[in-house]
Every structure is written in structure tokens, then in C-alpha cells.
Automatic annotation (TrEMBL):
<feature type="repeat" description="TPR">
    <location>
        <begin position="533"/>
        <end position="566"/>
    </location>
</feature>
<feature type="transmembrane region" description="Helical">
    <location>
        <begin position="243"/>
        <end position="266"/>
    </location>
</feature>
<keyword id="KW-1133">Transmembrane helix</keyword>
<keyword id="KW-0256">Endoplasmic reticulum</keyword>
<dbReference type="GO" id="GO:0004169">
    <property type="term" value="F:dolichyl-phosphate-mannose-protein mannosyltransferase activity"/>
</dbReference>
<dbReference type="InterPro" id="IPR011990">
    <property type="entry name" value="TPR-like_helical_dom_sf"/>
</dbReference>
<feature type="transmembrane region" description="Helical">
    <location>
        <begin position="33"/>
        <end position="54"/>
    </location>
</feature>
<feature type="transmembrane region" description="Helical">
    <location>
        <begin position="188"/>
        <end position="208"/>
    </location>
</feature>
<dbReference type="InterPro" id="IPR019734">
    <property type="entry name" value="TPR_rpt"/>
</dbReference>
<keyword id="KW-0472">Membrane</keyword>
<comment type="similarity">
    <text>Belongs to the TMTC family.</text>
</comment>
<dbReference type="InterPro" id="IPR013618">
    <property type="entry name" value="TMTC_DUF1736"/>
</dbReference>
<feature type="transmembrane region" description="Helical">
    <location>
        <begin position="430"/>
        <end position="449"/>
    </location>
</feature>
<dbReference type="Pfam" id="PF13432">
    <property type="entry name" value="TPR_16"/>
</dbReference>
<feature type="transmembrane region" description="Helical">
    <location>
        <begin position="403"/>
        <end position="424"/>
    </location>
</feature>
<feature type="transmembrane region" description="Helical">
    <location>
        <begin position="286"/>
        <end position="305"/>
    </location>
</feature>
<keyword id="KW-0802">TPR repeat</keyword>
Length: 758
């Protein structure tokens, strides 16, 4: 039955095929599932994976996308390409103390290409690439699972055989529709995991190609082993997990190519058996290939270490509270609990959340905590599987279970906290690759159940139902990732104790102008995490805008007390103190902010406003000049310089500053307006008129633009045009200061002219 999909081969292939298939039990024999030709299987998997996530194509930039893409200068054409190799994923220098050391230059390069080809930050192109990548990976999984579940066998013509077409199709479908993958596909920053997975799989398939010409088991291709190492390096340059493929290739080589029995090997090593050379270590070039893989991995890690430096990543306690626990027991218990949660997300991906930090998962501090049961269940299952993988007399069973456990555990190791602290508690994106191992174990379990079941079709329908539920769950979760509002609100029911969830809901509401609702969520975030300085800062900002200055000052003072280098909170505290007319304290707060963030144009702008209020005009101009040096497009700083120079009678200097500003920001109508006022006072009426008209074209509903243009015409003697623009200004804003008086003066003058003319 299995052979039917390969019947295009020559007749002698059938003998070869059956001889190899009889070497070990066939996983497909008892599986009641669809049997499709290879190309049809790949088309079905690709199509279904597309349907799962297609509705995310027109989503917004959400959550971490802002920092990794919109605010990442490495995407801009003006940033040299070479800088990508010395910056982390977020655009910070790897040498910086604040860098997370996430070194993914190839992923950032694809973001940059998206940005350049689209001509800006248009999320559709970013999302489409992510969907295509997941579909491609899912299609490749058909080949990968056919090797992992059916073994690596070739025909006489060197064509790889699929000895488990039904099982590999089922496993690939399970992978394609797993809802835990939604974060990687629908969240644009998940591109790192997708690219890593793509080259991870290509490295594995490349390693398998090294044995294509291996007819008698004595030869292999060094070229393809080296290619596999290079592809593993590329995977690591997309995301750190990529390096683990080299270890998995070694496991695959030992178990599948050399058919080593691990338990037997351990026994011989312990008892120093003289027949150790027959255990497979020195046969088929295994030792040489292991040396290539180890040298390649060591070289890759050394180069990465040289680039990123020796400093550890900078994370805070709220990111990963267990890693900051003083007790080794508490750390170990909670790490294992996190592992059980990851396992549960693979088994039952219903409770999904964009962020699991900040109190979402309270620490286990005692063995009396009922959640210890989850740890016991996890290790009971793992130990059972490991025992079967090592001790079973069935070599086929040993191989599949060991490969399943290997693909489940080894890619997860970089996120396990065992080697270094990571910046999260649970992250759905990091189980994209480990889900391969889950799919292997699920499929193998299904085959065992099928073997025992009398009504196999009912079992097949049940699995089909699981796939259908997962497809619907993927579509629902993808729709939640389309906008920040839906994404953040979806987390409230999953992680109600997560302060960051409430913070993000509040921030989203504040951005939409709903300050009252935002305050409620910010207060809850601070209640859940009394040291949440970012929530305090944002809440203080809103209270400042609502003129609740004393509470705002309390919150911001507490924020800088908790985190003394929080520059934004120092600046906002300065603004509040300025509003309370405590000018010396405000000035000190501004300078403290600048001390902690050297390049802080907004702080220089606010410092300039303080100096202007104190009539320290030179200091104000210097502060605003600093703001424009650090941020040449800082329109408010340019405008304030022009206005201050204008008000102090320095028209020539004001004109020079205005022209300089418009060269840098040529389409800013507020700058056109300010410079037009200066030119009008300098009696350069024609040029002033042109700028006023250009500003009005850009912003036709600004009453002051029409009112000041009317004043220009009034001075210039163009009274009819002056009358027209006075009337437009009063229509837009009947209470416009000075406009009504000027209009009445003009009307009286026109009446006098009419009388004289009469």
C-alpha cells in the first residue's frame, strides 16, 4: 500500500524498497490516516497552514514590533549595513550595558529589506513574509518527519524514500496548525523564530544528504556535512536556538545512521568492554563527523562571543523572577514548573498570552503549593519516555522516542535558564522548534493507539477533530494579533495577575485618548506591581495633563526613587515641578534626566521652556539648539527658537533660524507660519504671503493662519484680501484673540474709504 506512491520507479526499486522496509516495523502499518503522494501531501499541508494564519496579513505593528521595527534605526537606509553586525535585535550596540545580547543580524536584514521595498513602515509586507515562511517550513516538515518517523533510506538511484507517508503527513499537519505558533507567525518579531526554523530544517536535510550515496554504509559526503554546519550558523544568526541543530544532527547520526543502542553503549563504557569498537563509534566515519560538528559549533560560538562581548544580558526581576530568587530550591522548583507550563501549551494550547511575566505566574515557594503536581506529572512522563527510549527491545521504538525527546528538549535548552538567565518566564515563540518533538511523540502515540484500537476510524476522526479545533484556534488567535487592543485585552482573562497586561491595555487606551479608562488600568498595574516604574510614569503623565499635579508628582518621585536612572520619569517630574512653579527643582530634574540619557532632545526642549519662563533667553535658545542638534526634525524646538527671537526683536536671527529649520523640515506648516510672521514684520510681504498660503494649504482649518495672513494684507494695503481672511478666521474661531478687533478696524477703514470715494 505504501509503495503505490513511488510506483514511477523502475521495477528493481520495488525489491530494494521492500528489503529496506522489512528491516524494521513500519509506523504506517496500523495508522488509519490519509495516504497521499508526496507532492499532494505537501500541497495540503501548505494550504492548511496558510488558511490558519491568512487573516493576520493586514494586521498592525503590535507589542514588540514597535521597538524591533518602527524604532529600530538599523532598518533605515541611512544606517550602514555593517552596523547590523554590531547591534542587537533591537538596534542597540551589543557593547551597551542595556543590550539584551539578542544577536540576530540576518533577521534584522530581512526587516530592512521589507522596509526598503515597501518604501516605509507598511505592516502588510512584513506579515505576508511571515505567513510564507511558516507555510514553507510546514511543507519542509513533510520531508523532515518522513525521515524522523520512517528512517533514512535511499533507492539505488539515490532518491530518498518516504517510508512513513501517512505518519509524516499527520505530524506535518499537527505542526502546521498548532496554535502556539501564532505568536511567531502573526507577530512580526516572530520572524526570528521562523527564519531560524527554516535554516534549522535545511541544515538537518543537508546533513541527511551527506548519506545519499551511502550504499554499503562506508562512505559519506564531507561537503554536505560542512553545508549543514554553515546552515546551522545561518540559523543561529537568525536566532540563538539555531545552534542546537548541530547537536540534533549528531544525535540523528548516532541513532539512525549508526543505529547505536545508547543503553548498550553505556554498559560497555562502564564495564570497559573490549568489543566497544563494535558499538558503532568508529564505524561509518561517525567520529570524524562528530569532530566536524563539534569544531563547527565551537567556532560559531567563539565568533559570536567575540562580537557580543563577555557581559551577560541585562534583565530585571520582573522579567524572570525565579532567576533572581536567593534559594537554589526555589529557582529549581520554578524553572521546572515553567517547563511543565511549556509542555501544557503544547498539549493544550488554549490559554495563550503575549506576555507571561510580571506576576502572571506567582513563584512557588513551598512544597505545599498544589502546583508541585504539575512538576511531578511532567517528570513522571519524561522519565517514562526516557526509560522506554533507552530500555525498549524494539529498536524502532527506541529510535523514534529518542528523536522525539531530542527535538523536544535540545532546541529548548537555550530558553531553559540552565546555562544563562533569559528575559522571560514563558514565551510561546521559543517552543516553535520544540513542537517538532511534540508532533513526533503525538504521532507515535497515535500509531500505538491505532494498533490496539478495534475501531480505528473513530480514532482517526478524533485526531481530525483535534486538527480542526486547532485550525479554528489559530484563526481566532491570529485575529487577536491583528491589533494591540485585541491582543492586550485577550490576555486579561489568561493572566489577570500580570501587571504588564494591564499596563499595555492602559497604554493602548491612552493612545486613543481615553484617559479615564487608561487611569484605571495603570492603577491596577501599579497595585499588582508596586515597583512598576513605567506604569507610574505613564499614570503620572496623564494626571499631569489633567492638572492633578500633586498626585502626579508623588508617582513620578516614587518612580525615580525606585529606579534612579529612569530618565523619562525625571523629565516628566521636571515638567510637573515647573507647572507647580518650583523652578529650581524642575531644572535639577531636567539635568538629572540628561545625565542618565545624554542624547535626550525632548528633555532639552522642556528645559528650554523652563528657561524661557524665567526670562533666561540665552539659556533657552541654547537648550533648544541642543534639542535640534540631537533631533534635527524637532519642530517644536525650532518653532520656539523662532518665536523667542521674534518676540525679542531679533528678526534677522529669527529669519535665519526659520530658513534653517525649513530646509530640514520643508513640509512643516507651523514653521512656515512662524517664519511668515517674521518676514511680514521685516516687510518682506511677498515671501511672507507665499509662506502663509502654503501653510494654509497644508492646514486650512487653522484660524490663526488666516488671521495673521489678514494682518499681513492689512499692513500691505490689500484690504479686500485682508477682509476675506479675517472673515474666514472668525468663522473658524469666533473667539480668536485680536482678530475681531482688527476686523472691526478694517471695516471702519473700508467705510471711510467708501465715503471719500462717494
Amino acid at each position: 500500500q505504501i509503495f503505490n506512491q513511488h510506483n514511477a520507479e523502475a521495477p528493481n526499486f520495488e525489491q530494494v524498497f521492500h528489503r529496506m522496509a522489512q528491516m524494521e516495523p513500519n509506523l504506517d502499518h496500523d495508522v488509519s490516516w490519509f495516504l497521499l503522494p508526496s507532492y499532494w501531501a505537501k500541497m495540503v499541508v501548505g494550504l492548511i497552514s496558510f488558511l490558519c494564519f491568512a487573516n493576520s496579513y493586514d494586521g498592525d505593528f503590535v507589542f514588540d514590533d514597535s521597538e524591533a521595527i518602527i524604532n529600530n534605526k538599523d532598518l533605515r537606509a541611512e544606517t550602514p549595513l555593517g552596523d547590523l553586525w554590531y547591534h542587537d535585535f533591537w538596534g542597540s550596540k551589543l557593547s551597551s550595558n542595556t543590550s539584551h545580547k539578542s544577536y540576530r543580524p540576518l533577521t534584522v536584514l530581512t526587516f530592512r529589506m521589507n522596509y526598503l521595498f515597501a518604501g516605509g513602515f507598511y505592516p502588510v509586507g512584513f506579515h505576508v513574509i511571515n505567513i510564507i515562511l511558516h507555510c514553507t517550513i510546514s511543507v519542509l516538515m513533510v520531508d523532515v518527519f518522513s525521515i524522523l518517523l520512517g528512517g533514512l533510506q535511499f533507492s539505488n538511484k539515490g532518491r530518498r524514500l518516504n517510508l512513513a507517508p501517512k505518519s509524516s503527513l499527520l505530524a506535518a499537519l499537527l505542526f502546521a496548525v498548532h496554535p502556539v505558533h501564532t505568536e511567531c507567525v502573526a507577530g512580526i518579531v516572530g520572524r526570528a523564530d521562523l527564519l531560524c526554523a527554516l535554516f534549522f530544517l535545511l541544515s538537518f536535510l543537508g546533513y541527511c544528504k551527506a548519506f545519499r550515496e551511502n550504499k554499503e554504509g562506508h562512505t559519506f559526503s564531507v561537503f554536505w556535512v560542512v553545508v549543514s554546519v554553515v546552515l546551522g550558523a545561518i540559523a543561529m544568526l537568525c536566532k540563538e536556538q539555531g545552534i542546537t541543530i548541530l547537536g540534533l544532527n549528531a544525535v540523528f547520526d548516532a541513532l539512525v545512521i549508526n543505529k547505536i543502542n545508547l543503553l548498550e553503549l553505556i554498559r560497555k563504557l562502564l564495564y570497559k568492554d573490549k568489543s566497544l569498537e563494535n558499538a558503532g563509534l568508529l564505524r561509518k566515519g561517525l567520529l570524524f563527523r562528530m569532530t566536524l560538528l563539534m569544531c563547527g559549533g565551537a567556532g560559531i560560538l567563539y565568533i559570536r562571543w567575540r562580537i557580543m562581548g563577555t557581559g551577560p544580558p541585562a534583565f530585571t526581576e520582573v522579567d524572570n523572577p525565579a532567576s533572581f530568587a536567593d534559594s537554589l530550591f526555589v529557582r529549581a522548583i520554578n524553572y521546572n514548573y515553567y517547563y511543565s507550563l511549556n509542555a501544557w501549551l503544547l498539549l493544550c494550547p488554549w490559554w495563550l498570552c503575549f506576555d507571561w511575566s510580571m506576576g502572571c505566574i506567582p513563584l512557588i515557594k513551598s512544597v505545599s503549593d498544589w502546583r508541585i503536581i504539575a512538576l511531578a506529572a511532567l517528570w513522571f512522563c519524561l522519565i517514562g519516555l526516557i526509560c522506554q527510549a533507552l530500555c525498549s527491545e524494539d529498536s524502532h521504538k527506541r529510535r523514534i522516542l529518542t528523536l522525539g525527546l531530542g527535538f523536544l528538549i535540545i532546541p529548548f535548552l537555550p530558553a531553559s535558564n540552565l546555562f544563562f538567565r533569559v528575559g522571560f518566564v514563558v514565551a510561546e515563540r521559543v517552543i516553535y522548534l520544540p513542537s517538532i518533538g511534540y508532533c513526533i511523540l503525538f504521532t507515535y502515540g497515535f500509531s500505538l493507539l491505532s494498533k490496539q484500537a478495534k475501531k480505528k476510524k473513530i480514532l482517526a476522526v478524533a485526531v481530525l477533530g483535534i486538527l480542526l479545533i486547532n485550525v479554528m484556534r489559530c484563526a481566532l488567535r491570529s485575529s487577536q494579533w491583528r491589533s494591540e487592543e485585541q491582543l492586550f485585552r485577550s490576555a486579561l482573562s489568561v493572566c489577570p495577575l500580570n501587571a504588564k497586561v494591564h499596563y499595555n491595555v492602559g497604554k493602548n487606551l491612552a493612545d486613543k485618548g481615553n484617559q479615564s479608562a487608561a487611569i484605571k488600568y495603570y492603577r491596577e498595574a501599579v497595585r499588582l506591581n508596586p515597583k512598576y516604574v513605567h506604569a507610574m510614569n505613564n499614570l503620572g503623565n496623564i494626571l499631569k495633563e489633567r492638572n492633578e499635579l500633586h498626585e502626579a508628582e508623588e508617582l513620578l518621585s516614587l518612580a525615580v526613587q525606585i529606579q534612579p536612572d529612569f530618565a523619562a520619569a525625571w523629565m516628566n517630574l521636571g515638567i510637573v515641578q515647573n507647572s507647580l512653579r518650583r523652578f529650581e527643582e524642575a531644572e535639577q530634574s531636567y539635568w538629572t534626566a540628561i545625565k542618565h540619557r545624554k542624547k535626550y532632545p525632548d528633555c532639552y526642549y522642556n528645559l528650554g521652556r523652563l528657561y524661557a519662563d524665567l526670562n533666561r533667553h540665552i539659556d533657552a535658545l541654547n537648550a533648544w539648539r541642543n534639542a535640534t542638534v540631537l533631533k534635527p526634525e524637532h519642530s517644536l524646538a525650532w518653532n520656539n527658537m523662532i518665536i523667542l527671537l521674534d518676540n525679542t526683536g531679533n528678526l534677522a536671527q529669527a529669519e535665519a533660524v526659520g530658513r534653517e529649520a525649513l530646509e530640514l523640515i520643508p513640509n512643516d506648516h507651523s514653521l512656515m507660519f512662524s517664519l511668515a510672521n517674521v518676514l511680514g514684520k521685516s516687510q518682506k510681504y511677498k515671501e511672507s504671503e507665499a509662506l502663509f498660503l502654503k501653510a494654509i494649504k497644508a492646514n486650512p482649518n487653522a484660524a490663526s493662519y488666516h488671521g495673521n495672513l489678514a494682518v499681513l494684507y492689512h499692513r500691505w494695503g490689500n484690504l479686500d484680501l485682508a477682509k476675506k481672511h479675517y472673515e474666514v478666521s472668525l468663522k473658524l474661531d469666533p473667539m480668536a484673540p485680536g482678530t475681531k478687533e482688527n476686523y472691526n478696524l478694517l471695516r471702519r477703514k473700508l467705510e471711510q474709504l467708501q465715503k471719500k470715494g462717494g
